[in-house]
Write a structure and sequence with these properties.
Number of strands: 17
Low-confidence stretches: none
Shape: globular
Number of helices: 13
Helix content: 25-40%
Strand order of the largest sheet: 2-10-9-6-5-3-4
């Protein structure tokens, strides 16, 4: 495609209705802690089928708030996958817990319930699966493992808003699910996040946590006083999501079905058109899953050839990326004692994977350009 534009692996899709929603919020009496926060939470609850949704100012804040609501603290362990962004593990360390990494299924990149079962100890407080690339993990198996043990399952659903497992939406599959609204995610607020749960007490704790641990409800205060009275009953942070960004999120959510349908159509085209490229392994989707297709991740057969493939695609105008470098191999985590070989399947997956462009605004001609380029480059360098 002569003169073809650079195609990133992902990008936001902001339209005139989104801009108008933000402009109306800017002209309103509330820029933060106002009615658009409640509106966005109600819309999210409807979209993911959860009784309670709390919005916060990042996906990282969502993880932190969910972990705190579950009572995570010193002496507790968190089991999670290393095939994720570091925030999944970092948030647990901020609460004084220990993170233990569990290996993944070699084909899907999702956490392996069998490995989780082997890793469970009396100190395991949380299991945190990653809905890698947009497909939910095996929550029925993970919830069975947690049942009756005092362990909770908190889904890192940063990739999976709009996905389903056996017809049930992401947001209803675990004790709580966190979402991200970074620009490349299924919908965006610029930066933002949310937690969905059926646990009313967790919902209350997270609302307090996102606002400095502040309590304004007289029925919950220890010493109710004047109308202006508030109490700090626990440590919290300023994790509030402003009305301006909630307005954008509510507007974006109206197009979530359209966004997900387009992502699925692009993924289906890639799966068909690249099926005969012998040099690549294509994504594996588990039975019963309707993926949100946040990412389309292919793997080269030889890790040593990945860099050549990556560089050639970049030079051809495709903004490919790698998701992710395993968390346990980051310098900070190596300083904690983690080492190569700890999760060999995740390490192999990460060494061979490349994320291709996939976002709703990709035109049909651009999709075909991606396919043609990947086929040509794979033939030339792999």
């Amino acid at each position: 495609m002569a003169g073809a534009p650079f195609l990133p692996y992902g990008r936001q899709d902001v339209d005139d209705a989104d801009v108008l929603a933000v402009a109306e919020a800017l002209r309103s009496d509330w820029l933060t802690t106002g009615p658009r926060v409640d509106e966005f939470e109600r819309a999210l609850a409807a979209a993911c089928g959860a009784p309670h949704v709390v919005v916060v100012n990042s996906g990282t804040a969502a993880l932190h708030a969910a972990y705190e609501a579950a009572g995570l603290g010193p002496g507790d362990e968190v089991l999670t996958s290393p095939l994720t962004f570091a925030a999944t593990a970092n948030a647990a360390l901020h609460l004084g817990a220990k993170v233990r990494f569990v290996d993944v299924d070699a084909r899907s990149g999702l956490i392996d319930p069998g490995q989780v079962s082997a890793a469970l100890t009396p100190s395991t407080k949380l299991v945190v699966p990653i809905d890698y690339t947009g497909q939910p993990a095996d929550y029925p198996a993970l919830m069975r493992l947690a049942a009756g043990t005092g362990t909770f399952v908190i889904a890192d659903g940063a990739h999976s808003l709009g996905a389903t497992l056996d017809g049930a939406p992401a947001g209803t599959l675990a004790h709580a699910t966190t979402f991200s609204f970074h620009p490349v995610k299924p919908v965006t607020t610029g930066e933002g996040g949310a937690i969905a749960t059926a646990n009313a007490e967790w919902d209350h704790r997270m609302r307090s946590f996102r606002c400095h641990g502040m309590e304004r409800d007289p029925l919950r205060q220890r010493d109710p006083g004047d109308p202006w009275h508030y109490e700090i009953q626990a440590l919290g942070l300023n994790y509030r999501l402003p009305d301006v960004l909630c307005a954008l999120g509510t507007s974006q959510l109206r197009r979530l079905p359209q966004f997900i349908a387009r992502r699925r159509a692009i993924a289906a085209r890639y799966l068909t058109a690249l099926a005969d490229v012998a040099q690549l392994e294509l994504p594996h989707v588990r039975p019963g899953v309707e993926s949100g297709w946040h990412l389309f991740v292919v793997k080269v057969h030889e890790a040593g050839r990945r860099r050549a493939f990556f560089d050639a695609l970049r030079q051809a105008g495709l903004g490919v990326q790698v998701h992710y470098e395993p968390v346990h191999l980051q310098p900070y985590y190596r300083d904690l004692g983690h080492r190569p070989g700890e999760c060999p399947l995740a390490e192999d997956f990460a060494a061979r994977c490349v994320s291709l462009p996939l976002y709703p605004a990709l035109s049909d001609s651009e999709v075909e350009h991606v396919i043609d380029t990947v086929r040509r480059v794979a033939e030339a360098v792999l």
